[in-house]
């Protein structure tokens, strides 16, 4: 079957199966354009759009408005009357060479073994799923903010001896709304929060996402009575910090081993277990608060309180892994935010030291090697956000990617959804830090993706 694919090519890669949709790189005399070059462009490209720099300002103008001195960066949006300048032909190739055009955006038909109807329907389903996911992330921004603020209030209340179970429940309910857990998991890396209180919310969401997926694909029994209890258990894992003075909690100094401050900090799992016992929660929920810092190698400095690893239930071990994952992808005063893929790779190095290898494998199978919302670069140098975790666990390196930037870093208005499990000539060549590429706007850029 045939499918239309859009990509960038150089002059000597053009052939007659292609239609040019943009002239991207133009040599002199277009930069800056001479009087003659302007006349020629207006005559030949009337009705198209030019991306120009004029007096230091960048903008898109109709070609007819070009003036000598403009730096013409690209020409695109051709009306049908310009078909002679968009369908590649020997005459056009000759002309392009003479006129100094060097790089092009083209569309071409590609052949695939899949039947046309199947591919179209499957692709539409994937696009629909990706669109719903993007909408969920946008709809969860307020939930994340409110829930993080509520955690701070709850810890303050707990300091005064009040635990408002209803308030906890109402925020946990929101995280449990269909799809919100996954959306908040994605948001954790898109905004790399530095709020201590967002930690509980994000750990709750990531735990829910990972645990549900592990139970689904392994068929293992879910021990929680319902989704709310599951999320609540992870959400409240650090609530013992309510019994640690705020100055110690918020301090940026590293406390000495065995100091009073360090001992208090390291008591938060025990304090948490006491708090949850008082709330009448079941033993497995208490186990999660009590042992979420207990490592496989109990001799490690960072392992507390001492316990037999055999008494640490699977859910607690998974929570411990999620706890470290969230801390690394978040920003802290003493470190930058790590990208989800590099964090996943780093966690592999802790296997059989902090937790068993099989637990790590489950976590990777659930979140993928490139977790949803990771920013990645493809081998054709386009950049995009990961939209799914592949169902086939052998294809975790081949997720679906919504491309947002072309190889020169220019934004696409519409994001093509590239399914790497189908497009085998493409692959991910590296992960990128969404904050480094888009600054504070990473979450906005993600929410504005218009996928097709
Ligand atoms: Fe903790
Ligand atoms: Fe924690």
UniProtKB/TrEMBL annotation:
<feature type="domain" description="HD-GYP">
    <location>
        <begin position="174"/>
        <end position="379"/>
    </location>
</feature>
<dbReference type="InterPro" id="IPR006675">
    <property type="entry name" value="HDIG_dom"/>
</dbReference>
<dbReference type="InterPro" id="IPR037522">
    <property type="entry name" value="HD_GYP_dom"/>
</dbReference>
<dbReference type="GO" id="GO:0008081">
    <property type="term" value="F:phosphoric diester hydrolase activity"/>
</dbReference>
<dbReference type="Pfam" id="PF13487">
    <property type="entry name" value="HD_5"/>
</dbReference>
<protein>
    <recommendedName>
        <fullName>HD-GYP domain-containing protein</fullName>
    </recommendedName>
</protein>
<dbReference type="InterPro" id="IPR003607">
    <property type="entry name" value="HD/PDEase_dom"/>
</dbReference>
